[in-house]
Design a protein that fits this description.
One of its GO terms (biological process) is carbohydrate metabolic process. Homodimer. It holds the Pfam family Glyco_hydro_1. Keywords: Glycoprotein, Glycosidase, Hydrolase, Signal. It is a single chain. This protein is α/β, with parallel strands linked by helices. The chain has one domain: Glycosidases (TIM Barrel), CATH 3.20.20. It has 17 helices and 13 strands. An 8-stranded parallel barrel has the order 1-2-3-4-5-7-10-11, surrounded by 5 helices. A 3-stranded mixed sheet has the order 6-8-9. Strands 12-13 form a two-stranded antiparallel sheet. Helix 16 links the parallel strand 10 and strand 11. The longest helix is centred in the middle third of the chain and has 28 residues. The protein is globular and about 60 Å long. The structure holds 2-acetamido-2-deoxy-beta-D-glucopyranose (4 copies). One 2-acetamido-2-deoxy-beta-D-glucopyranose binds next to loops. The site of one 2-acetamido-2-deoxy-beta-D-glucopyranose has 4 residues, from loops.
Length: 491
Amino acid sequence: MKTFVAFLLTFALGSADINPRVFPDNFKFGVANAAPQIEGGWDEDGKGETIWDHLAHRHPEKIADGTGPDIASDSYHKYKEDVAMVKAMGLDHYRLSIAWSRILPTGYPDKVNQPGVQYYKNLFKELKAAGVEPMVTLYHWDLPQPLQKELGGWLNESVADLFAEYARICFGLFNDDVKLWITINEPKQVCQSGYGYGELAPAIASSGVDDYVCSRNILLAHAKAYHIYDDEFRETNKGRIAMVIDTIWYEPGSDSPADIEAAERAMQFNYGLYGHPVHIGNWPQVVIDRVAERSRLAGYPKSRLPEFSKREIDYIKGTYDYIALNHYATNMVNASDAPVKDTGYWNDIGILTWRQPQWTGGEGGWFTVVPWGLRSLLVWLKKTYGDIEILITENGYPDKTGVMEDDDRIAYFEGYLSACLDAIYEDGINLTYYTAWTIIDDWEWLGGYTWFMGMHSVNFTDPGRARAPRKSAGWFTDMVKKRCLVKNCVK
Ligand SMILES: *[C@@H]1O[C@H](CO)[C@@H](O)[C@H](O)[C@H]1NC(C)=O
Ligand SMILES: *[C@@H]1O[C@H](CO)[C@@H](O)[C@H](O)[C@H]1NC(C)=O
Ligand SMILES: *[C@@H]1O[C@H](CO)[C@@H](O)[C@H](O)[C@H]1NC(C)=O
Ligand SMILES: *[C@@H]1O[C@H](CO)[C@@H](O)[C@H](O)[C@H]1NC(C)=O
C-alpha cells in the first residue's frame, strides 16, 4: 500500500513540471465545435428539426437554464468572425460538424437543401482563404427528429443505412473542400446516455438493453460510411476518416489484482466497446462474457448484448485511418459487483469510481484536471491497439463563472499539453493533433448556457452575440507561435 501511495504522489507531483520540449514540426493545433452548439439558425433556410431541438423545446426542464440551441452562438450568421478568430490565433485546423438536417431536412436522402449546402461551402471557402484546415464531423449527436419519431432512431438498423446515404452525399458535395473526416462523435454518449441512462437526447432510459442495440447500429453506421468513403471517394479525395471515441481514463484504485482488473474492465466497456470492434474485431471479450453471464443470472433468455455476424465483424474491423480521441476526465476505480438483478450498463461493468481529494475540477461531475491521466490513456491506446497515429479531437476546461481572466483554463491547457509532450517524447506516442474545446462559448447541451468553455466569451443576452477574447486566447496564441510551454524551449 505504501509503494502505491508513493506511486500516486509521483504522478501528482510530476504533473506540476511543465515539459520544456518544442512540439514536433508536424504537430497541429486547433479548436473544435459542433453545429448544434454554435450555429443556431435551428429552422432557418430549410433546416429540419433535430432530436436536440425537439428535446429543448418540449422538455426545457431537462436543460439547466431551460434554453435551447435556437440561436446558440449564432455562428450560422457570424461564421466569418469565427474564422477570423481562428486565423488570428494562428491555428492549423478547425473542427466543425455538418448538421444532417441542414443538408437533408427530414434525414431521408430524397431532397438536398441547397441553402444548407451553401452555408458549409461558404464556411469552407472562408477557412481555405484563412489557410485553416477543416476537420469535419458528419454526426455530432443531432439526429433529424423524423428518424427518431418514425423509425426509433439509433435503435433501428435502417438508420445506419440512412446515415450512410447522408455521408455519401456529404463526401460528394464537399470532396474538394474537406480532407479530414470524422464519421460519428462520441458513440458512447449517443448510446449509453441517449438510449441508456436517458439523459442526452432522445432521453430514452433503457440502460443495459437498448443502449447496446444503439452501439451495434452506430458501429454499423460508421463502418458503412467508412466503406463508402474507401470505395467511392478515397481516390479523388485523398483524405482520411475515423470515428471519434471519448473516454475517461480509469486508474486502478489500489495495487490489488481485483482493482487493476476492474480498471481495465472499465476501459474495455468505455473505450473498447467501440475501439475493439474497429481495431481488433467484435466486442471486447470481457464485455461479451460479463453481459452474457449477468443476463443469464437475471433470467434473460439470451445476452442483452446483441451479436455481430462473422461478416459484420470483418466489415467493421479496420475502419479507421487514425485514432480520434476526446478526453475530459480521470477516475480511480475499485472493483464492486452490483446485484445481478440490477441490469444496466454501469452494473455490467461492476466498478466503484472515486477521485483523489487533491484533484480540482469536477463541478457537475463530468470532468477532472488530471493531466497524467491523458498520458496514461495515450500509452494504453498504443499498448491495446498498436502504434497508430492519434489525434486529440477534444480536450478543454469548463467553468461556471465565465471569468475573463481564466487562469484556471490556462493552467489546464498547460498541463494537458505538457502531458502530450511527455507522451510524444517519453512514450513514443504518434500524437499529431491537439484540438481544444473550444474557441467561443456555446450551448452545452443539458448545461445550456451555464457552462463556459470558450477561449472567447459570447454575450448570450446580446442580440449580436458579441465575442470577446479571454486571457486564455492570448496565452494559446502565444503558445502556438512559440510551439512550446516554457520560457526557454528545448529543441
Ligand atoms: C425500422 O425502419 C424500417 C424502415 O426502414 C421500418 O419499416 C420499421 O418499422 C422500423 N422499425 C421500428 C421498430 O420502428
Ligand atoms: C478502494 O480500494 C482501496 C484498497 O482496497 C481502499 O483503500 C479504498 O478505500 C477503496 N475506495 C473506495 C472508495 O472504496
Ligand atoms: C505517425 O503516423 C503516420 C501515419 O501512419 C506516419 O506517416 C508517421 O510516419 C508516423 N510517425 C511516427 C513518428 O511514427
Ligand atoms: C451583453 O449584452 C447586453 C445587451 O446588449 C449588454 O447590456 C451587456 O452589458 C453585455 N454584457 C457584457 C458583459 O458585455
